Amino acid sequence: ERILLMLPGDAAVRPGRLDVAVTVWSEELASRSFAFAARARAAALRASVYMGSSGKLGKQLKWASDQGARWALIYGSSEHEAGTVTVRDMRTGEQAAVAASELTRYLAEAAEAEAARGAEAGGGR
């Protein structure tokens, strides 16, 4: 019980749910994927990096969906070259290219907007 009290926000209420799932395209880009997960955690979001053996985006997005992730971060060679991260909304399928340097701010603002929508829908609770 003491461990649950130390968890941020509603992490104890929604076990096993991720805010952010991070894909891994190649061994060369894996360290960046872990860094992006750390940035998500810095924004007080629950994040995990795909640890499976498949480099296929479809399988990784299925994993993200199975984890209940709200957003998936996609970082492949084209994103690497452009200095961006693709943030995919797992509910709508919409994607946004976000400058890697702005990722933490973008995720924090997206989570804040999500929380505000939830508060409005829940009567401000």
Describe the structure.
The structure is a single chain. With 125 residues, the chain is of the alpha/beta class. The chain has a single domain, classed as Rossmann fold, CATH 3.40.50. The protein has 5 helices and 5 strands, in the order αβαβαβαββα. It has helices at residues 2-6, 27-42, 57-66, 77-82, 103-121; strands at 20-22, 47-49, 71-74, 84-89, 95-99. The chain has a 5-stranded mixed sheet, sandwiched between helices. Strand 1 (20-22), helix 2 (27-42) and strand 2 (47-49) form a beta-alpha-beta unit. The longest helix has 19 residues, at 103-121. It starts with a helix and ends with a helix.
Describe, in short, the structure shown.
The chain is of the alpha/beta class and about 120 residues long.
Features:
about 120 residues, alpha/beta, Rossmann fold, five-stranded mixed beta sheet, 5 helices
Listing every helix as H and every strand as E from the N terminus to the C terminus, the arrangement reads HEHEHEHEEH
Q: In the CATH hierarchy, what is the architecture at level 2?
A: 3-Layer(aba) Sandwich
- Low-confidence segments, ≥5 residues, pLDDT <50? 9-14
Strand content: 15-25%
* Continuous helix count: 5
- The coarse silhouette is globular
Kindly identify the CATH topology. Answer: Rossmann fold
State the helicity in percent bands: 40-55%
What is the first-to-last residue Cα distance?
A: 24 Å
CATH class category label: Alpha Beta
Q: Give the neighbour order of strands across the main sheet.
A: 2-1-3-4-5
- Rg over alpha carbons: 15 Å
Structure classification: alpha/beta
Report the average pLDDT across residues. 87
What would CATH call the homologous superfamily? Anticodon-binding domain
Q: List how many beta strands DSSP finds.
A: 5
Whole-number count of domains: 1
**Largest β-sheet summary:** 5 strands, mixed
